[in-house]
């Protein structure tokens, strides 16, 4: 059959530029975003093989994009599901850790060292500092027991938070026990709330509790006390045990009975915890001496503690060293006068052991709270000395001669001013110094302050320097004599202080006479009373 050769008429494969152009159009037309339902014109259709190849290439590209998107989506879903599954576990684990931490914080051991804190005395802050030092001393000894503070409701919240957060103590708030002995003739008001110590028997979460006063100084670990019986205490008096440290087994039955005895007014010689508890356990003197079992077991019954657990500081002053053969030398107590407790800066060198307490405070709590006040006072005293040296005020300009009667009155007033200014120079610095600073800082600041104020009186009233500063020199000398570290025993030390006072007394008297004569001469000086023109 003769006919036209279509391959020659339409040489498609010989026009690559046309094929490429139409292929691009096919690819664009096959994209999902530009697909149209209207068919393209016939003159723009490509041959079938070329169109099919372009379609297959586009399909493979879409498949690759889809697989990639599915893979990314699968990864995202997997991560999300994993987080959703892990989140409850993390929350539960965190809650468990916090709960365990709180439990450990509140009660980690079966035994406890406890003390009490109440308000209403002039020395509340000093006892607060003493309690903190004692608690930190116990922590530094790594005792295996909780630290508990039995606090009255009026203890400041910031103190409670400090005890809990910084000192690691568990604070138990209690209502004050009504003291029916407060109207006794010999009652000391500072002991009004000491019966709160009875709350130690209510700490029934513990097997044993060692109840402590704030004036205990621990020399070593005393955890063996938790092996003692239901009640144990030491006798520092031949007939009366001391309630500054005692061991007890908590019991609500005993606690309620103690409160009942308080309500009915059981005989109490001093109206405080000492007389009440010693009367309640009146048979302790007849009980055996405590010796901790070597196997670590707990004893039953009542026991006397060896003196080494309550070494009275007054025993130290006889020989200036400890020698207590019965039991370990573990705890020092300071049951003396309240104004000579070891945390007061003036207690040393009057009582040599005060420096030991401050050494323990320096190791544990430090003196950061008092240092700003110390620095400010020191700068003020130095400024007073400098200003007095530069300016010499003349009080005579304030006085004028009027009549003989007015002159006599002025003489009397000036004498009183001079005397009281000298007295104030030695009293005011003592009052202003923070009570619980280190003794060396306290005495140094006191000597600086008394010198500065004495210098003002000397300059303003034209008084002789050495006689006015005689008390200052005497105080410095007696501090040196008392602090001398090489005495053989306390008797030699006491005799040395007495000899110093005996030798200084004549000089003090002569200085006093000279000062009074100088004051008399100063107020009678004509220059002080110029006539009005």
From TrEMBL:
The keyword Secreted does not apply. Keywords: Glycosyltransferase, Manganese, Membrane, Transferase, Transmembrane, Transmembrane helix. The chain crosses the membrane at residues 371-391, 412-434, 440-462, 469-488, 494-515. GO terms for molecular function: glycosyltransferase activity. Gene3D superfamilies: Spore Coat Polysaccharide Biosynthesis Protein SpsA, Chain A (3.90.550.10). The keyword Transmembrane applies. It comes from the Eukaryota. This is Glucuronosyltransferase PGSIP8. The lineage of its organism: Eukaryota, Viridiplantae, Streptophyta, Embryophyta, Tracheophyta.
